[in-house]
User: Fold these one by one.
Assistant:
Number 1:
Amino acid sequence: MTPDRQSKGPILTLLSEFYKMGPGPSSSHTMGPMRITYDFYQRISRLPAEQLIRATGLKVHLFGSLSATGLGHGTDRASLAGLLGKSPAECPPQFLDDLAANPDRKYQLNLGPESLSLSLKDVIFDAAEGEFHHPNTMVCRLMSGTDVLYELEYYSVGGGFIEWKGYQAPEKGQPKYPYEYARELKKYLIDDKIPLARLLLENEMSISGNSEKTVWDFIDQIAEVMIRGVDTGLYVESILPGPICLRSKAAGMMRMQSGKGAAGMALTTLASYGFAMAEENARGHIVVTAPTAGSAGIIPAVLRSLRDINIPAQKIRESFLAAAAIGYLCKHNATLSGAEGGCQAEVGVGSSMGAAMIAQARGEGPKVVANAAESALEHHLGMTCDPVAGYVQIPCIERCAYGAVKAWTAYCIASQENPMERRVDLDTTIAAMALTAREMNSKYKETSEGGLAVSLVLC
Ligand code: SF4
């Protein structure tokens, strides 16, 4: 049973907030900072002309985990791109690659009557340790010489979500079927016999005000971005950016899959899909958070494997809703941030979402969907976040492949057992993840100060 805690109210997360498109490699350290500086850019663009005419520059200060591992995550180039008015969903990956390749180049930003000259040097890796409101804190400043004309403190709170000092959640509609926990959700599904996909769709429409068509169109769009990412990653072979000099593996795995027997071929295919998308993320190309960029290889791998077995398009759409419901529950009752909860919160949640997605797509009932999600999450509890050299490559890329494999394993277990006999329920495991996150040594929360990050010596 979940320990009592103060209610946060019903889950109000929307698909477009959860499945965010943007550049990798990290939702909290790349996509979140880019969303932050793009938000700051939009705010200062609206300042009165008499204030803007005094502006001489922009500065971004990175604190905490963003300072400790931001270089490897491309936090500086993503932050500069946002300041220059590039939106995360639409910025061409080539623009980001060019920023990284030309660290001294100056870029002009036309802001009101004056043009500001900006470079990567305007993004400052500030204090990595200290008392911060959130482990991923940023301060954006509009400067006039040494005077600050306008500033705002922001937080990249995980999964690409952002908040700021004084943040108040936006006004939304109320869900038709309010729930905070899986047990409340299950009451609607089992007692009232409301199909899971219908319930989630109704909630999405009542909270957002969007039509059913808009919801399905959005899901189709993210599915296509994911499939494109997998397909690209399956043929591109390269050394991934950064000091590890890691060679991509997805294409080679696909070529070498024959001769391994049926199980070996199936696992190699699935794992290569996970590698393909995760390697695209490592290249800083466009991914969809699911729930984060570091874990963004799992759901595309599951999706591609469901297409391989000819699951109808509508069932796949509905399975995205089931996956989102698991992510929402984890976000609401625990965390999706490696900097707050270690890798269990990223790859663990991604795998759990994948298990629910498979079960939903295969036409299982809600108990099996929840049990599959529980099983996958349970076997990631305690997994730490210790990216080598601060790059989302080791262990992240292989973890996406394992996350997809564990998602299928969890589905296979949940679909053959008596669903009423499962001893651990989803709420309990989410509560255990939250507890483990709170008690985990901070070295293992995306600081690159523990585990593999300090054990592996790079030549
Ligand atoms: S180790 Fe896990 S949580 Fe940490 S950056 Fe990699 S994928 Fe994200």
Number 2:
Amino acid sequence: MSLVPAALAPWQQQRLDTALAAWRAGRLGHAQLLCGPEQLGKRAVADALVARLLCEAPQHLPPCGHCRDCTLRVAGTHPDFRLLTFEEVPKSSPPRLRTEIVVDQVRDVIGSMQLTAQRGGAQIVLIDPADALNKAAANALLKTLEEPVGNRFLLLVSAAPQDLPATIRSRCQRIEFVVPERESARAWLAAQGHPGARATEALEAAQGHPGLADAWLRAGHLALRETTLKELAGVARGVLAPLGVAQAWMADTDVAALRLRFVADAAVALARHGAGVGAAPVAGLTAPADTDKLAAWFDQLNRLRPQLTAPLRHELALAGLLAEWRGLMATTETRR
Ligand SMILES: [Zn+2]
């Protein structure tokens, strides 16, 4: 966390301003659920909210950055702030992180919250990602949610709020993040140093999502998308072998899931608009007449995607799907 929080995008600032207005009016609920798609800045807004709630400066001012509370927060040692996130698996070698937030973590934090605020101001627990709370952890947290204490806040950050128990969701005020208007997204991308044409292409690929578009532009993922879609077209035309393509995609573990996302998006674009719309590299493919089959194919691909994080080999499953893709596209061409 930097001393002075980084500038927020307009859609982020707006959510922060709304929450701070509620706080100044004394109506900020003790539990806030910051939810919406990934990479829209939920955590940045949560961090900015934490900074303001802890700072000693008068409420109408931004966090000062130099009081004792700000200094402790930036050093990561503020006694009234706790972050609940993935922890290391005990004694794991090489060290690896848990994939869920466990009940001991929640109990530990709640235990420390029973005392009054050590610095005399707000007490805050930030949970990110909140949907990673396992069942026991969520139950332990529920008790705290049911017994609000003045000037004590729980901030839950989640891109998958539907995975939270309804009992938790219903006790939170929501701060919803949505993909902003295209013009606002484009202006923000320009401010990040992305020129017009590339920004437009990236926004198209990311379906209007500026945070994703920015991340992809920085990582050079638009080129990866282009290559992936060309290879997909190669499979459909029978120029590339499904197994070879599947092996190449899966071997590149860092971006395997992203490749499949690009493929899934292309399948949706084909089903919706036919070939070429918003996905120039898919040009040359015709949308299958049998959209039911395409939808079934899309479902199978989506079932494969979350499994990629498991240490399994998925070349064969993917090769099977790519062979089917060729069949889907070929069927269309013979029908026309
Ligand atoms: Zn301060």
